[in-house]
Amino acid sequence: MSFDSPRKVKEACKKYGLRPSKFRGQNFLIDKNVVQNIIKACELGRGDKILEIGPGLGVLTDELSKKAKKILAVDIDANILDILDHEFDWNNVELIRKDILKLPNEIIAERLGRDYFLVSNLPYQISSEVLEKFLTQKPKPKKIIIMVQREFGERMLEGAPHANLLSLMVEFNADVKKLFRVSKNSFWPVPKIDSVIMEVIPRDRKFLSKEEQIIFWDMVKSGFRSKRKYLISNLDKYTNIPKKIITSSFDELELDRKIRPENLGLKDWLAFFHKIN
Length: 277
Known about the structure:
The chain has helices at residues 6-16, 32-42, 59-65, 78-87, 105-112, 127-136, 150-157, 165-173, 210-223, 231-238, 243-252, 266-276; strands spanning 28-29, 49-53, 70-75, 93-97, 117-121, 143-149, 174-182, 187-188, 195-202.
């Protein structure tokens, strides 16, 4: 059965005693056109394998199962997995009850191999953490197609003078682009805002060594600790870098001493890091 209408989703909820959880972001995709657009964006071959985070009521999972060799569908909600187990007769879908943030990438790679796709309608509450996990920890997916809240997707693409920790992390580790917008009416229950489909291609860029990256991101996060303050003030307060070195490096890089953290793009942050080191 395909739960592709509000009526069918409501019937399933009544049948299985399921109450969609706002906390878990359970707004179930019901729009077949959106599903087909996601399938096209994946550009799957018959030998491809997929990690799906949060399969919901299986509308996307079912279509993916017709295109891919194997799907590992992970959800923390046992009720959701019970519904999928009862309603669908898949022979290439493995259902796992697990918090995706606690499932090591190595375990995923053992099940799917190292060239897998990540496809997900990501709950807003864990969107940042999931992206960071799969962009900074190996083995990484070869392609990520995610549906996220529109504002979150826009934040992923922002650069100076509106840069943020999310956009800097994504730019450092991947190529990203917005594919298309998804109306809030494509879900039930209907969320408050629209969503977007994002394509993220992980890259192993050699900007910094592994050890340098730890120091670099500690510095960047310190820079964003107090967004209303000047960047020099944050770096002086929250890092061990002497203020004299901070200010002289700004001057040498021709950076305004009164800039705020969002005014620096990734290249500026890297230039500053190299300058102080």
